[in-house]
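Sequence in, structure out.
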Amino acid sequence: MPPRPLVFITGASSGIGQALALRYHRDGYRLALVARRTADIQAWAQAGGLGADDFRIYGADVSRPDDIVAAGAACIAEQGVPHVVIANAGISVGMDTAERSDLDVMAQTFATNNLGMAATFHPFIASMVQRGSGTLVGIGSVAGIRGLPGHGAYCASKAATISYCESLRGELRASGVRVVTICPGYIDTPLTRQNRYAMPFLMQPGDFADKAHAAIAAGASYRVIPWQMGVVAKLLRALPNAWFDRLLAGRPRKHRRGAAEGGAGRG
């Protein structure tokens, strides 16, 4: 009897990552779960009644390429080559370019959200190509579609995520390996609860996970969830710059580091 399919998920200790892990578990997948806070994953798995054969935990800081590459190699050695890899881990912290310390915030954001994503995919690509199948999922954000004041690091990193996944999709098109970009809107996680502005179409993590799972299974190349935020993002993208700037004038900004910390999840 062949082993159950395997999904590898980063940022699995809370929020979207945890919701996706539960959704894939319910679908019969074995789980390879990655986070810095491994104790949180262990507690969640025990509370949910997951058996020893259902999951493995890999401790890694995705902003350190050697960490996440080692976690991927350990997954292959212990559980095999995943069928689905979801690069979900990310941080979202406000920034002010006039502040020197916020340049470090931007560097950390790109190290986690962008380099970390590429390093997450890296260990699996050769084996997936050799097998002729597999799905690499990049978690972007609607914030990557248009820049928001005070969100320079996060918006730029998610715009880069969308472009990176598009490039990778083209590179792997003939290999049988799919690349899926999922762009969440506002999801109700500990991270978004810190926001100081309205969050239209706020979605529960479980509902998001259901829709993301369906999009990934269908092999969608790009999906905004919920769809209403996709409409809003397209409308904002179509606005002339002067109108867009006027619309966002006076909008509260995301907390900078020190006022509130970003974590794994969507902002």
